[in-house]
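Example record for the data management plan.
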Amino acid sequence: MNRRSILFMPGNNPGMLQDADVLGADTIIFDLEDAVALDEKDSARSLVLQALETIDFKHSEVTVRINPIDSPWWQEDLQTILPANPDAIVLPKANREAIETMEQYLEVKGILESVKWLLLIESPMDVMHLKEICEASTRIEALCLGGEDYSSNLGVKRTKEGLEIQYARMAIATAAKAYGYDAIDTPFTDVDDEEGLLENMKLAKAIGMNGMLLIGPRQVETVNRFFSPSEHEIIEAKEILRLNETYKSQGLGVFSFKGKMVDAPVIARAEQTMVAAKRWGLAE
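Corresponding structural encoding:
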């Protein structure tokens, strides 16, 4: 899908649930886990269910983050939420055991529809086992980095520069692209630091991430713009594809563009740019 902005919304805040579809995020995560106090789990579940059943979401994919399998709430989360047909379920602390447990739950309940998983990778152990995680289900659509929990499990403090999560970022981006999933970076939590956000996005995009988790709507427009193809990138991609058709008709598989060789990987990149541009209404 190439999700760019994935915005968390507390499941116990009816006003925010009501406004979710107009905030511009590609994906909304109604959160039943970290954003909800223990004594509000039941009410949050009911509010999210009501939102899913009554609001006509036209602009954003709508997902729900349930509680992890080591909690007493995850089964009731699924039992309540799945009948309302969210676009996907976000699995926290995602590892092979968690995915297999969820799959067994669906099988026992006779739920055969195409429930989709977005996985939150939050521990060094899970980063070390990304291959088996990615192969645990055919429902997976995205790998997302939970940087705060990951850093805590490392026993280090999160920093603006993010050196402590760099290995995890690269591993998750590589695994996601190897299996055809979206690669989603961890939130940049200082919503007032535009420069820091930009530097984090530059690094994330450079290593293959195609989107970012967000904890506040103020960053949505900036993140969408950054992870979309730029006007220059679109123009260049169009020209490369045009030249490719011309040279292909002449029996040539390799040609030069602006002094650089264009071969199959460059053409594939140009095609990906145009797919993304059309997906987000930036090109016809």
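Summary line stored alongside the record: The beta strands are 5-10, 27-31, 61-65, 88-91, 117-121, 140-145, 182-185, 211-214, 255-257, 260-262.
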